[in-house]
Design a protein that fits this description.
By secondary structure, the protein is α+β, with helices and mostly antiparallel strands. It folds into 5 domains: 99 residues, no CATH class; 213 residues, no CATH class; 59 residues, no CATH class; 75 residues, no CATH class; 165 residues, no CATH class. The chain is built from 23 helices and 23 strands. Strands 19-21-22-23 form a 4-stranded antiparallel β-sheet. Strands 1-2-4 form a 3-stranded antiparallel β-sheet, with no helix packed on it. Strands 3-5-8 form a 3-stranded mixed β-sheet, with helices on one face. Helix 8 packs antiparallel against helix 15, helix 13 runs antiparallel to helix 15 and helix 19 packs antiparallel against helix 20. The longest helix has 31 residues. The chain is flat and about 140 Å long. The two termini are 74 Å apart. 25% of the residues are buried.
Length: 762
């Protein structure tokens, strides 16, 4: 403890700035001090007081004092695991001690800590908040927040350009100098495109090219890009004037009300210049930097000019027609439609939309500034503490000074005044006005009995009190404190999780499970937020004719159905479609005879249904001849003959489904002979006739040649296929005969695998 007190050191401001930012793994909460990293503010290796030697009794007792992790570890250790501990396993540590950042610019600190976090894959977040209220001019929304406005701003610009393009391009093609119209229509010709072609150009080109045009945009680029003018036109004159030293100056300086030509062209040039000024503003600024007041002034000018110009063009056209002096170039104007295009721009309300966008940006900016204020952050995030670091999974909070305002520290900086320390230590914490200090000075001077050295000390103190109080300047954006919260929250753009509750008007309709056995006699309720009854369904919404009933005032499904095959259907209620399957076990199977490498027959059995729970193959009442699978591995004819010493093989296949704790099975029996095996070698899969009971006295069933499967003329041989026998349908009552008018057997040996489907739910 004595060494801890002796070796404690306070660093001055300049020393803070020179420190290296280090992150060391450490411990907090219930761990001993000796298990934590040695802080930066200790002298660790003073002669005779080497703190690192006394830091950990455990380490020192084993001769491993140099393995204590600390800020100044390089002063007593050369081991890289101590100097660079983040490069090694840090699983045992639960805290990261962060030091060396006080006094530095917070942006540099953020960059450094985030860089180390990325390099070493450290599990914590970092935020920086201001100790002062942030001025609007010093804050911009993070890029992730600006992305919200990314589509909106260029969309408004594109709409503005599209609406103004057609009238703008047309007036730029007016001949200039103005032609003198005559009765025969002779005049300087102009290169006009039709109105439709101009509009097509606007739609096809503007939206696609505005992004590239925004780079190094300058006045006149809008015309250069979309309205390239010919010689001797308004547009060519305007662009040429932009290249002069004075820039564009309206060439019509004298507007005579009696000279309609001069009045018209003055406003044409004014409109062209107003549009170019407006496009310059919107193309060179973003939503963050746009001066909305400047935009409003420019937009109002363009609208006013467009409105006035449309009236002048209409009057000009009417006068030309009335005097029968319509030149060929004027005839192509389609003026009535052009006036409508002008009005479309005038009433487009682009300015209101831009104002709304800017207001929303400013609102979000103010909210963001508030979130960066320390006091607000402290109130919003509980658990804020200072531990000179951050735990795993926590957030490291940097507090910085955002404005260069003088801050008074405790005491006075006597050294900067070149005063004696012994004097400054005697300064009382009092405030004296100048008149009182001068009075005391005079009294001391008149006190001849006082020793000269004491009189000097008093005079020095009084002189010091009269000097302006020295104030300590905290650099702008300097980190002045740090804290942590034991959870991740929240960077500039924190993730947001939305939990959307369904509206009361939203229909809920569902059922779980959705797959059932055909003989399941239980009731399964639907999940609904409305009263639903069986009468709400018809053949369209319930095409499978599912058994729907009310059970305890809830719509329920009764899966038990008298069906012969699996039913896959869809139940629909108010647009919500639910797929439902009613499974009927089917033990149908096929036989496929192939040959091995020697040409000997191989018998393969395959189930029709491959989604059952269990499969059982019996050959002459013996199991394990074929694997208990849907598609067992083939068995050679030679093996079958040796195993049973016969040429007849009684096949019994049992298939079982277990769905929703209900069990249902089916079995099929068929007789396979050696002759059938040899005849069907290489002919592909075939299905044997199914029988109810094996009778040794009955003749073996023979394969039947299908008429449509034989083409002796083309192949020279008949293809053998068996006649399919319709499978029997299981019933719930064992007294009911099967479709082939046979009664189910009651063989006790096969009771567990009877072809009757059984509901075995407890």
């Amino acid at each position: 403890m004595e060494i801890l007190v002796k070796e404690f050191t306070i660093l001055f401001q300049d020393a803070f700035r020179e420190n290296t930012i280090k992150i060391n793994p450490s411990q907090y909460q219930f761990h001993w001090l000796s298990q934590r990293a040695i802080p930066y503010y200790y002298n660790v290796n003073d002669d005779g007081n080497e703190l690192y030697q006394f830091w950990s009794y455990y380490q020192s007792g084993r001769g491993m004092a140099t393995y204590n992790v600390g800020y100044n570890a390089d002063l007593y250790s050369t081991d890289n695991t101590v100097i660079q501990p983040l490069l090694y396993d840090i699983e045992k540590y639960n805290f990261f001690r962060i030091e060396g950042h006080i006094g530095k610019n917070y942006s540099e600190v953020l960059k450094n800590i985030l860089g180390q976090r990325l390099t070493f894959n450290l599990p914590f977040d970092v935020v920086a908040v201001s100790a002062d209220q942030l001025p609007a001019s010093n804050t911009n929304l993070p890029e992730c927040n600006i992305l919200v406005f990314a589509p909106a701003y260029p969309h408004i610009i594109s709409e503005l350009a599209c609406k103004i393009h057609t009238p703008f391009c047309l007036v730029t093609r007016f001949p200039y100098p103005p032609p003198q119209l005559t009765a025969n229509g002779s005049a300087t010709e102009a290169n006009f495109s039709s109105l439709n072609s101009l509009k097509a150009e606007a739609v096809q080109n503007i939206s696609a090219s505005l992004a590239t045009l925004a780079v190094a945009y300058k006045k006149g680029d809008f015309m250069r890009k979309y309205c390239t003018p010919s010689a001797n036109t308004v547009g060519s004159f305007y662009l040429n004037s932009l290249n002069t030293a004075t820039g564009f100056v309206n060439p019509i300086q004298q507007v005579n009300s009696k000279d309609f030509n001069s009045l018209l062209y003055y406003h044409i040039f004014d409109f062209v210049d107003a549009v170019e000024d407006l496009m310059l503003i919107v193309m060179t600024y973003s939503v963050a930097t746009l001066d909305i007041a400047q935009f409003q002034v420019s937009y109002s000018r363009a609208k006013s000019s467009a409105s006035l110009l449309s009236l002048l063009l209409a009057e000009y056209y009417e006068n030309a027609i009335a005097n029968d002096i319509v030149a060929d170039w004027l005839k192509e104007l389609e003026l009535d439609v052009i006036v409508e295009e002008f009005m479309t721009f005038v009433y487009s309300c682009i300015d209101e939309r831009m104002q709304t966008l800017k207001s929303e940006y400013n609102r979000r900016l103010q909210l963001y500034q508030l979130q960066l204020n320390f006091l607000y952050y402290y109130r919003k995030h509980s658990g804020l503490e200072h531990k000179a670091g951050v735990p795993k999974g926590g957030t490291f909070v940097l507090v910085y000074h955002s404005e260069n305002q003088p801050a008074i520290l405790a005491g006075r900086q006597g050294a900067s005044l070149n005063t004696n320390v012994s004097i400054t230590n005697k300064i009382p914490d009092i405030s004296l006005n100048t008149a009182t200090i001068n009075l005391i000075k005079g009294f001391v001077d008149d006190c001849n009995d006082a020793p000269p050295d004491k009189k000097k000390n008093i005079i020095d103190i009084l002189t010091y009190l009269q000097q302006p109080q020295q104030k300590f300047q905290i650099p702008t954006n300097a980190v002045i404190a740090d804290f942590y919260i034991p959870y991740l929250c929240c960077s500039d753009c924190p993730p947001v999780a939305y939990v959307i509750q369904p509206s009361p008007d939203t229909v809920q309709f569902d059922i779980q499970p959705r797959i059932f056995l055909f003989d399941d006699a239980h009731n399964y309720p639907f999940t609904t937020n409305q009263q639903v009854t069986p009468t709400d369904f018809d053949t369209t919404t319930n095409p499978g004719n599912l058994n729907l009933l009310m059970d305890n005032d809830k719509l329920s499904l009764h899966p038990a159905m008298d069906i012969k095959t699996t039913l896959n259907t869809t139940l629909t209620y108010k647009g919500i479609a639910i797929p439902i399957s009613i499974v009927v076990p089917d033990a149908s199977f096929t036989v496929n005879v192939t040959a091995d490498v020697t040409g000997a027959p191989l018998v393969a059995l395959a189930a029709k249904n491959t989604d059952a729970t269990t499969y059982q193959w019996l050959i002459n009442d013996k199991e394990n001849v074929f694997e208990s699978k849907a598609n067992p591995a083939p068995v050679s004819l030679n093996t079958l003959q040796k195993s049973f010493d016969t040429n007849e093989f009684r096949i019994e296949f049992i298939i079982t489904y277990v769905i929703n704790d209900n069990t249902s099975s089916d079995d099929r029996k068929a007789l396979l002979t050696t002759d059938l095996i040899i005849k069907n070698l290489g002919q592909g899969p075939f299905e044997l006739p199914y029988i109810n009971e094996f009778n040794s006295a009955s003749p073996a069933p023979q394969a039947v040649v299908s008429k449509d499967s034989v083409n002796e003329q083309k192949t020279g041989k008949a293809v053998l296929k068996t006649r399919a026998v319709k499978p029997k349908v299981a019933t719930k009552d064992p007294s009911i005969n099967t479709p082939d008018n046979t009664v189910k057997p009651s063989n006790a040996k096969k009771a567990a695998s009877t072809s009757k489907k059984q509901n075995k739910k407890p």
